[in-house]
Amino acid sequence: MDVDDQELARFMEATHASFDQAQFFLEASGGNYERALSMFHEQSAGGAQRATHPPDVPPRPQAPAGSTGVRRRGAAPPAGGAAVDAYNPGGGALPPPLQLLNAVLGAPLVVVGGGVRLLVRALGFGARLGGAVARRVLPRRLSAALGRAGRALASAGAEVAPAAAAAEFVRQFAERYGDVRPRWQECGWGEAASRAHQEGKFLLAYLHSPLHQDTDAYCHDTLCAPELVAYVNQHFLCWGGDLRRSDAFRLASSLRVAGYPYVALLAFSGPRTRLITCVEGRMAPAQLQEVLQAGLADHGALLWQEQAERQQRETDRQLREEQDAEYQRSLEADQQREAARAAAAREAEAAEAAARQAAERARAEAEAAEAQRAEAEAALRRRKSEKRLALPEEPAAGTPGATLIRIRLPDGSSHQRRFVAADPLQAVYDFVDSIEAVNALQYSLATTFPRRAYRREDSAGKSLLELELAPQAVLLMQPEDD
Prior knowledge:
Elements (H helix, E strand, L loop, with lengths): L4 H11 L3 H10 L4 H13 L50 H17 L4 H21 L2 H15 L7 H16 L11 H11 L2 E7 L6 H9 L2 H10 E7 L3 H10 L6 E8 L2 E9 L4 H106 L11 E7 L5 E7 L4 H10 L8 E5 L4 E3 L17 E8 L3
Parallel strand pairs: 1-2, 5-9
Antiparallel strand pairs: 1-3, 3-4, 5-6, 7-8, 7-9
Helix pairs in contact: 1-2, 1-4, 2-3, 4-6, 5-6, 10-12, 12-13
């Protein structure tokens, strides 16, 4: 969001903060000057100033009895807590000349506003270059002030992704406090909350104020105590964030943190986040474990309910999947049966069609054979009638040159007739064609001894005498019809 330049100047004048700090606190507070000022003092050292709570925020849970000297949710900050400037580790106020110098360096940035980031980075580079020269020619305190201003300019507008900020925090925490530590998640706190929700655990969130006077002792003596580390790693999902990064600072703002060091136990039910308990200020490892254990005991039903609901959802999901799978299998079986019935119907229809075609072919063949037979019979009848009429008159017995021809049929019957020796062989064929018992359209005549065949077309024009069939002969009729 855009921050009013006058508010920036007013905040920098009141807190002696850099431009980057002023813009960060005003943006985090939504442009509310009083709240930004309160946040600044809260982060610095848990000073007497506190953020004003909106009316819809529920009251903070009180600390358990007997925890005197320990800051918890709703407890007052320690007396005499002095504000610690993130860019003035000594904690004291700058002398008037340096205050004036800080205001002069910040004034141009207030004028141009937060939108001209390229100019800010250019000024930051110039400040770093000037700082290198100033360390050689200026007094130590003045050059330190210039260095802090240069670093503020160089980092102005820099935004670190939540995952990168978490990885940076884990690395720096391990380097400073050792390997015995909570198993911090290397992701943004929103992603850590999602993981805790999925695993059915509370999220232990630690907000790290590196310049706070109690931070180092708290991390060494409490957070890295072996017994506490084993306990939190077993029961919670742990996430830590450096307040100098926006992800952790936004979480601190949403939790309305009143003092540091700060540890909160968060629970998640669906999209909602619930604060179970929190501890503000230093606390011994055993006491902190007791508070966390009490929170887990008092509110573990949330986890059990969430786990039961998750288990019920998983059971319902599995049941739906099984029902869907069973329905799919039943559907596939029905489809297979339907396909089998359709295939059998097609096969039966094809067989029936083949049978009909075969019957039709057989009927057609029978009809064709019947027609052929009828036609053959008609042709035989016509030929017999025609041949009878065409036969020459049979010569009487004893007529000179008469020849007796006997015809033996395949059925064993025989027929004879007299011909003139000069008659052609066709006359004999005409006689055979006229015999009622002859049922062949195609046939040939042959003698048995000597074996000789007399075909109609081969013997055309030859007389019986020339064919040595006179004065008598016996001929066998040999049908040649297919």
